[in-house]
Amidase (Paenirhodobacter hankyongi), 504 residues
Amino acid sequence: MAVRLPNDAQIADVAERIGLSLSPEDVSSIKGLLGGYVAAYNKVDRMIDPLPVVKYPRTPGVQPPKAENPLNAWYVKSTVPGAPEGKLKGKTVVLKDNVMLAGVPMMNGSSTLEGYIPNVDATLVTRLLDAGATIVGKAHCECFCMSCGSHTSALGPVCNPYDPSRSAGGSSSGSAVLVSKGEVDMAIGGDQGGSIRMPSAFCGTVGMKPTHGLVPYTGVVPIEITVDHAGPITKTVADSALMLEVLAGPDGYDCRQIGVKTAPYTEALGKPVKGMKVALLKEGFGHPQSEAAVDDTVRAAAKRLEALGVIVEEVSIPMHLDGPDIWTPIGLQGLMQTMMLGDGYGTSRQDLYVTSFMDVHRGWRERADELSETLKLAMIFAQFADDEYGKRFYGKAHNLTYALRAAYDAVLADYDALLMPTVPKVATPLPGPDASREEIIARGFDILPNTAPFDISHHPALSVPCGMVDGLPVGMMLVGKLWDESTLYTLGDAFEKSGDWKSF
Ligand SMILES: NC(=O)c1ccccc1
């Protein structure tokens, strides 16, 4: 991609856009001074991009026929056998389709990326394969991961395994469906506002959003660096702990990984819970959109924990209700700057910049009409806020995350975990092909009041199935101290072993 010296018209145009008034003489003298930059860019262009090596051979991705994909959860199937031995030997894993698997297509739910084939493996891909897992393909996700429902992928809605007319939850929709159906043993999900935990709640799977930075996000398409998380979606708590043990730890690229503390998570399984303390979060219940049956099911789950000897007490953290509002400027202006205008990365930090992705993704600008309604709405307000107010709300929201984190930490100083419903409802009906924009937006953002606050506070949060309402799964969410995933696994595992949640 050789770099050319701009012509006079290009220099004048650029200058005008950055508010400079240049005379024709200025333009011609500046043109004469740009040669050094052009030479440097061309020298960089001729250097080899030092990307990490792809370690394991794989078959190219193939879209399965409709008959093999009744819930539309698969994007492509591919087989990547990992190391012959390891903790995940014999386990099959599907990746959310915002995770890069070299040689296999990735579209992140958007037609603007269809046909793109990454040339690197995400760090977590290499870790799974080094641990002996077999990666079996990519699962559909929401358009650029921007939805709580499963209705915004360019290749059609993903259906709930318990009722195909209902949402699977999003944005890691296909990942949760394939685990729920037993088509794969484990899945990778991503979570910026709840996208690992929401589909887990709707599909009856176990979803772990680890502490921010615990799992390297390198090679996964970001939304906004400070809320990006990747983590396990599994059938059981034990599998989640096993998978996290393989995924966790710094990789030397990801700047999200500050002060990372890992632990042998599987050692947290099968431990006694008598005397542990859980805080039932008052503000996690009774949201305007909360269904009483969901709240009741989670309160009943708290009683089951009590029966196991756990001390459960209700606590109030009023600021929890501010969490989604504080999340909004970070999510909106972050996604605009980093994911969209930043060609998927933005600037100002060290990272592994997947340049092949950046080259393709910047083409969204010519095809913006194809993006989902949920993403468009967020982009419109982000651009407006940027133009009108600059970055002040993004900055102030970040400052407020310290206060929010402190509010949770104050309670977590006295308790092992917080407990609340993962989402306030059971799976909602999928908006049909003629659904209004209002309906599409409502289903895109209506179930995140308990999940999004922990994406900005960065605490680990585990969604565990805890009962059924009208034949649909309900998830409870345990939230722990920063870097203390182990305690969540101890509690979640004990709860899971207390009986079959489908009969609760
Ligand atoms: N990726 C996410 O977690 C997300 C969830 C809900 C809305 C927007 C984004």
Q: What stands out?
A: The chain has 15 helices and 13 strands. The pocket of benzamide is lined by residues 145-148, 171, 191-195, 223, 445, 448 (CB under 6 Å).
